Amino acid sequence: MASFRFELQHTDPNTGARAGQWHTPHGIVDTPAFMPVGTLGTVKGLLPEQLKAAGAQMVLSNTYHLALRPGADVVEELGGLHQFMNWSGPILTDSGGFQVFSLAKLSKLTDDQVVFRSHIDGSLLELSPEKAIRIQEQLGADCIMCLDECPPHDVGQDRLRAAVQRTTAWAARCRDAQKRDDQALFGIVQGGIDPHLREESAEGLLPLDFPGYAIGGLSVGEDPNDMYKTLDFTTPFLPVEKPRYLMGVGKPVDLLESIIRGVDLFDCVMPTRNGRNAMAFTSNGPVKIRNAKYQRDVTPLDPDGPSEVGRIYSRGYLRHLFVAKEMLGAILLSWHNIAFYENLVREMRQAIFENRSAEFRADQLARWGSDP
User: For the whole prediction, is pTM greater than 0.85?
Assistant: First the structure.
């Protein structure tokens, strides 16, 4: 595990926000960092060169989806995920644990494993902790995740506790199954919004001494304020000297609120999914570009923003692309939104070094006017 090292460079004493550097075999990630999501080995609509130009340092792919199509053995035979998708930077793969939540109707969960019925052809995929690790080792990402159970936010206490216990037991099996020493395996803290279960989950995982810890089971339907409160009492359970990753979150405001609570890494489909659906994040709040008021608008999408797309292309032209169903519209807004997210965390990182993360957060929220 010598290839991995997390260097905590500075903590804002006013908030607890952290700036660091995570050293991986495929490069250094400045934190806080946002990872665009490339579930199937591609961030939808964007070339790796465009992702790098937007400021992306690291991307995320998914074990469940790549195991089904094209298959982990195919990716391995084609040189591993970095070569397969032509991305030379760090990659993280989720274990399939989120699909336990999102594909609950297509899966059967036991203490031994989860069995999915493929959403593609109905075939069965058996995913045990050992198999999740084996698949991720074939894929070859820098950072891999333990298989976990991510329950819905509204389940009862008994079900939440069972998910914590199963996640802890599976984490030990994942650690024992890991053979490669050039991949960082993260444990995942579960427990919903219950402080005692979050503490129980952390206490079960910390003795396994993972090189990093993720916070799972949030952004699954709970109120945002409950998510922030959960981070308030969960991050203090995690080691200061190791990276902390909040899974699947979220909106720009969620990133800022989480960073000031001590989270280092993020991923979310929102910038590209919203971009494909004609919604742009801008310096002054969200823009729904299909709106008729933009038909004759020559104003650049985001003239004061960080993205070249936002400074060059008019709102009228971008609206035309979506109305005419031209694929360039989805590409340009996805590219722009990724650049917006990457610039947001980059500017927050600078604010942390200057002990003004709280001021930066307040200024951004004031500019957006509402939760973007």
Answer: yes
